[in-house]
Amino acid sequence: MNKPFWKIAGVTLLMGLASLQVQAASSNDFVDAATEAGIAEVVTGKLALEKSQNADIKKFAQQMVTDHTKANQQLGEIARKLDISVPDEAALTDKVKKMILEWREESFDRSYVNNQVDAHEKAVELFKKEASSSDKPELKAFASETLPTLEDHLKQAKALQATHAK
Q: Over the chain, what is the mean pLDDT?
């Protein structure tokens, strides 16, 4: 198939996963959206570690893998305590990988960094909403505690975008 199509489709999927249910109507919606966005961050971070030749992008990608893996584990524990199901990580990981395999090498860094800005803008919005209006104290605390890290990720992604994605 046409590589630009797959590149656009991959970026669209990742942005969609990162912003799913930004208007999270319930705790279940927040858990689904945050888990899916977190998994997408880990998968794309690992891909950036493999494909990028840029040290700054690789450092940022490793931070995304580390931070989002930790957050995904914390959210999973909270969800289990609250008897809220979480999306199937393996199925979602496979879906994300299939969509991004066709990214062209020469534009990978730009695609990755631009996606990180979009994904983190949407994640910050999602977590702010949950932190201010959740009906579950555990999820409200998780969102409040995780929000500063997401805001820092957004700041870093915007700095990378300014230097690497133009």
A: 81
